Amino acid sequence: MGIFGLFLQVGILWFLITLFTGSTDANQSLRETWIVIIGMLIVSLLIRFLLAVLFPESLLAGIAALMLSIVALYVLVDKVCGASKKATTRICAWYFGIGFLFSLIDIGFRILSTEPVTA
Question: pTM of the prediction?
Answer without folding.
Answer: 0.79
